[in-house]
Every structure is written in structure tokens, then in C-alpha cells.
Amino acid sequence: MIVPSLLPRIALLLMLTAPALAGERPPAHAVDLPAPETAARLERCLAASGFDVTRKATPGAEIRIIASRGQDVRALLVSPRSPLASVVEWGADAGEPHAPGTPDDLGACIDRGGAPAGVLTGEKFVVCLRAVRDGREIRFSGLLIGAEGTIVSTGHDLERVEAVSVRLRDGRTVPGTIGRRDPLRDLSRIDLSEPVPGFPLVGRVRDRLAPDEPVYSLGCAEGGELRLREGRVGEIPRVSGGMPLWEVRMETIPGSSGGPAFDAAGNLAGLVKGRFRGTKDRGYLIPVGTILDFLGTVKRGD
Fold first, then answer.
1. 31 - beta bridge partners?
2. Helix (H) or strand (E) holding 110
3. Structure letter (DSSP) for residue 205
4. Cys bridge to 109: 13, 45, 84, 174, which one at CB 3.0-4.6 A?
5. What is the mean pLDDT of each run of 10 residues along the chain (302 residues)?
6. Cβ neighbour number for residue 254 with a 10 Å cutoff
């Protein structure tokens, strides 16, 4: 039995949708995660809604998940598609005549159901940013801080850019102005014309991380959807251009640069800088100390 966690009820439309009609088979849901990680996230998401979750043995490499809450039974089958990808099936062909939801529900559960509650409380402070430079559109992420309507993000690709479009978590799109860009630290400060509550930095930062410690990043995918990625801290910090960076074993998706990374308690651990060239699962974080030093020398409106 998996003890229910304190995760908020994210994507729990998964638990509320009506079962599929007998004999129907929803399309398999493709996931860009290894089968064991996909299964673990689904298990945590189900347990967060008060389900007792068990695994049933299968003759192959598939993972069968059975979740029960009284008379309510949910069944899913997670199968490997490749070493780094998997598919999820549910309903009658997955072993039980109950369907736990739609592909969108499953996707949200997998994307966000794998993180502790403290991490997920930070998602309301993540913004999706868009700018145009030399006729080319640039998409990246940022973190609202303080209460004035200030965003901290990365600074690469922003040379000669003055204005950005900011999409808030409530769905609004508002204009932003780049107050300062620091090429050495690869950081930028973006100001909004209206006050918007941000992440409280005081008492909520971690400037020292341990090797192999889990970290969680929140960033915007190319379509503007918020995506969560789980990773592990590398053995030692790296230095690039004289500035320290945390190396992490984490998938870094396009558009996630500038998005925050948190430790398991929801403390800010850094901002996503990017990924190592030629890899998909090796990324770098700008440490909190570098961010605080930048913010301490850059005043709003500079």
C-alpha cells in the first residue's frame, strides 16, 4: 500500500471522469519517460487521491497498476516503448472494465504527479516568456519574485531585446520590459507594469546541494504548457566563464531556460540555464547565490 502524500489534487480529473463503455479501448498514451518512472509517477498521483495502489506481476516487461478506493477500481498497464519512453493503456484491455480518465488527464498526472507538494506550490509563480530578435521568435521561462511584478530569467539570446510578452499562470498575457541583462551571469530582470505576487525568496532558497540529491524544474514547453522534470544533482559544481553551475541529470526541454528548479522541500535551488550540447538529459542550473547577487546589484527599472 502506498500512503497518500500531501500532494495537492493536481490532475485529479483522472479520478472523476466517467468509465469507458465496455469493450471500448482508448488510444495508448505515449510518455517520454522510462516505464518504471512513468509507473512511479502514476502510483504517486493515484495515492494522492486516497487510493490503495498495488502492482501486479506480468510475464514481460510491462507494469500493471491496480488502484482501489472502496468499490472504485482503476487499472493501468505501462509498457516500455524504448529504454527512454513508454506507453500507458487503461480500461478493459488493461485488465479491468474501468477507465481512469482521458489522455490529457493522464499526461497532467504524469507530468506533475511525480513531485512533492512543496515543489508544486511554486508553479503559480512560473511565467512563459516570448520575444522577437532579428525576426526570430525566442521562447523561454521565468520566475516571478517579490510583490512588485518582477521576473528573473536567463539572459542569453536577449541582446538588443527590450520588450517581452509574459504569459501568467492565470492565463493573462501582459507586456514586460527588460530592466537589466547580465551576460556574465546569464541572467535578466524583467519588470511588469503592474504588481503581481511572486515567489517569496526569504527563507525559501538552497544555495548548497548534495550530490545525487533530487531536484525538480518547472518550465514552459514550446506550446506554452507548464512541464515538470525530475533530475539528480551531479557530483561537483561546474564552472563556465568563471561562474559556477550545478550540473544535473535532467531532461531539459526547449523553452525551459530561465525556469526555476526546486529541492524536494520546495526551496529555490536555481534557474535552468540550458543543456549540454549534444545531450538531452544533462543540464545546468544557475545557483541561487548567483541569482541573489545579481538581484542585489540590479534595482527595479534599471
1. 86
2. helix 103-112
3. B
4. 45
5. 37 34 57 84 75 82 85 84 86 46 62 74 93 91 93 93 91 93 95 93 91 92 79 87 91 89 94 82 92 76 44
6. 13
